[in-house]
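Subject: Interface between my chains keeps coming out wrong

I've been trying for a while to get a sensible model of this assembly. When I model each chain on its own everything looks fine, but I need the whole thing in one frame so I can look at the contacts. Pasting all components below, labels as-is. Any help appreciated, I'm running out of ideas.
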Amino acid sequence: MSAPSYPIPKPFWDAVENVLMVKSKELIKDIARTLNQSDKPLMEAFKAKKHTFHLVDMEDPTDNKFTCEALVCQHAVAHRCRKPVLLGQKVCPEHTTWKMPAVQSKPELKRITTHEGEAYFVDSLMNVYTADFERVGTFQDGELTLFEIEQEEEYV
Ligand SMILES: [Zn+2]
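Reply #2:
Try treating it as a single job with all components included. I did that and got this:
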């Protein structure tokens, strides 16, 4: 499957490319300054190569190609780090030593977000969980139904 493409007016793309070239050269100078070396060899190597830039739509929730695949466990439900990664990398610089857990089959949950910005997780049976893996509802036909749990009063 090829990546979707979006038409961009040439003057706009030229301006974006110019900014990327300027920022690339600033980065080269910064690297050389940090290493206390001349920027000349690196700058010549950079200029000798033709550069093409690609834009990546980081908002596409189905495209995990350019996001870190390390699992982060802050709550009961682990989630992907999803920070941007360099082309060809699977993890971000923060997770270079991360290894996929050796669990053969791990249950996968799909993240859903309400219009209010609350995140829930749905399993294959359409049960809905919080990040603490507390079952709080169901999800069917694109509709989230949360349980309303009332505390029963104690009877004497
Ligand atoms: Zn990461």
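Reply #3:
Confirming on my end. The chain has a mean pLDDT of 84.
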